[in-house]
User: Fold this.
Amino acid sequence: MRRYVIRRLLQALPLLVGISIVTFCIIQLAPGDPATLMINPEASLEDVRRLKIALGLDKPVYVQYWRWISRVLRGDLGTSFIDGYPVAAKMLQRIPTTLQLVGLALLVQVSLAIPVGIICATRQYSVFDYAASSFAFLGISLPNFWFGLMLMLLFSVYLGILPSHGLSTYGVGFNLGDRLRHLAMPVLVMGLTGMASFTRYTRSSLLEVVRQDYIRTARAKGLSERVVIYKHALRNSLIPVVTLLGLSLPTLFGGSLIVESLFAIPGMARLAVQAVFQRDYPVIMAVNMMAATMVVAGNLLADIAYALVDPRIKYD
Amino acid sequence: MGRTKYPALAAALALMLVLGLLVGCGPKAGTPGQGQPEGAAGPEPGGTLFIGSLADVSTMNGIHVADTTSDMLTDMVDDSLVDVGPKLEYTPLLAERWETSSDGTTWTFYLRKNVKWHDGHPFTAEDVVFTYLAILHPEYTGVRAKNYSCLVGAEEYQAKLADLQKQKADGKLDDAQYQAQIMAAFEEFKAKGSIKALTDYAVQFVLKEPYAPFLDTMGINILPAHVLKDHMGKDMKDQEYSRKPIGCGAWRFVEWVTGERVVVEANPDYWGGRPYLDRIVVKVIPDQNTMNVALETQEIDCGTIIPEDFDRFKAMPHLNIYEYPELSYTYLGLNLLNPLFQDVRVRQAIAHAIDRETMIKEIFQGHGIVAHTHGNPICWDYNPDVPKYPYDPAKARQLLSEAGWSDPDNDRVLEKDGKEFAFTLMTNAGNKIREQAAVVSQEQLKAVGMKVTTQLVEWSTFVNKHLLAKNFEAVIVGWRLSPDPDSFTIWHSKGGPFNFVSYSNAQVDSLLEQGRRETDMEKRKPIYAEIQRILALEQPYVFLYFPNTIRGINKRVQGPIQGHPLDIFYNVHQWYIPKAQQGTT
Assistant:
């Protein structure tokens, strides 16, 4: 197992370097550059050229890439072209926010989806099953922004009990209650609209497991239905759900652009999209590399978790 | 509180806070501690003002600012030599007064003596000289260097820099040689003495010829030399100063939490007196719907309102609504290198064919005004008496037929010499308002027999590959104007890349040159009036509309609140919130 993990990690390195080269080239290929953003009648071509020299954009792409990667390997992600903030500091500001938001959303998703999935499976074709399935599909199809706006209308405008935007009340200082009040609506939006896939996975996987011979054996032994489901069936049925969790790790860092914009939450997704629009190369690269690392790590974790929860699977 | 101007292509407008002039002014108070609005209990200190902004700040360094949110905040924290008042007049700020020599080329600014930076250091002429030299530094990464080409020696110096850049690009100079030569050129320029401190409180600028828009360039927020003196050049923008400025304005910087908020607090030692409010919090709310909710639930005091929501907000008892035309217009630009648009009758026909009144009603629910020419109705140079092309499709058809266009095969598309009247109308994707304007234009031009295809292009591609490359047939885009009417870079045949429609008219060229040289406002007026008349007649653009800015401000906020073509918060140090309401919101 250890050897397998080490091998996978070593394989990941060239993969990440490859991704960085491709990303670097793609953002350079995209028309326009940060200098374009200065376009106005008072800006001259000299202004643009001077800025390019200052930012090192006048060099050939391979020189720029070499400069970038050698800086990154020394632990320096560079500074934003737009506001001069060190990229690492910018990301460190955003990561905790996104983790809170998406972490809580994931918690909501999983803690609601798994019980709902179990009930749906154990009472297949019952009213609850149909209701939950419909609800799950509704969740998938509801546009995030619309659902968010409706919540805002209800809780902020009509009831006046939740703040419409932001992360904290100005002047109050950090406290958990205040933070949770601010995160309640965004988490609800992401949680409810995202729980569908977990519910469906749990349901179908459990349904598959309860048809297995060993479950019939367990029932034949006279075990109670509760023990059969929770002790024998559930653990095995959760294997695909665990995989799904591992694969959702990148989302955890990527956040949700729509929810972040709607609720004015300064998270990673907003940072990434803004960087793309502004052609803020150092930020784009850093965010992309982080996303790539998360995908690679998420896949690896899913594989490892697989082996941990399913003794039949062994890597060597 | 200086206003830095940059008539930018207004595409980023959708993201910006839009600033403008109030129609129907509020009560006018004096400086803090003096006047007070009628009927109110009088200004009381304290309270926090919450402003909603769609965009975050990008820098707090006054010479690098290039967007409205950053401009608004640097104007609070910093002051400039000269300010622009609500009627676009120049007013003294850090410069108590200024004088020009009789030949109009030497400008001397006399500075206030009791001004201190927020760290206690005194403000002197050294700061002013530092700021303007920093803009002219060969490694300055902002966009304002060209504004100072009017200074003695500046044009030659900038030409030299451009030449060195080219040599570097061609590989004739390595990095070290380039560095040495640009710095030598800078030293040579400085030695010309076109920017110099006469005393600690007097600064002189020497121009090579009289240049009227010069005062416009004195709106730069001054930088503290004692803080930044080792960073003139390319690393200035990355300095901590850009994120934690030390200004000399009415408000002291407190914090900037990126993507979330910027906070400033009253400067008790401000030369103009302490502002009434304790604090201003600018909240970044990137979504207009959320901004609406926040304004309605009183989580913010000030927010922008879009025309669709005007009636709803107008009816809310807790809000005052301010509406005023923006200092920017949208136009349908025609590529004059394209034979299709070279006949003036064709351009006039397009103007007649587009129903701009209806367009404004459809797109802005009527919250805008028809543009007939380049001049803005707010500006002192505005000429209302220009040729106008009201909606008249019959007239449009007649003009087109005079220009030789007809429809012999009755397919409702005009033809001439076997070629159909067909072109592509481009605008930038993501700007809903322009997208709508493009579709409306397309429909209306179809009605007079033109086959128009619309195309949406991502902004930076649009600018680089189409506008600046002159690779387009027709575009819908906008200009944000500066208070000075000089529009040389847009209309002069040698104006540079921003004359991308390739307009060329010897008379306009000569008028633009005259207008720049004439410093007397009264004598400039007829010059710009004539330029506006010719542009309206010739329609190198089909001018579409000036949108209005609409702002909602909570009634708890009082004082001389009054629109301003550049920034409604220009006198926010005179605003106040009565004691009883300081705790709300």
Observations:
- Residues 3-39 of chain B have pLDDT under 50 and may be disordered.
- The first helix of chain B runs from residue 68 to 77.
- Chain B has 15 helices and 20 strands.
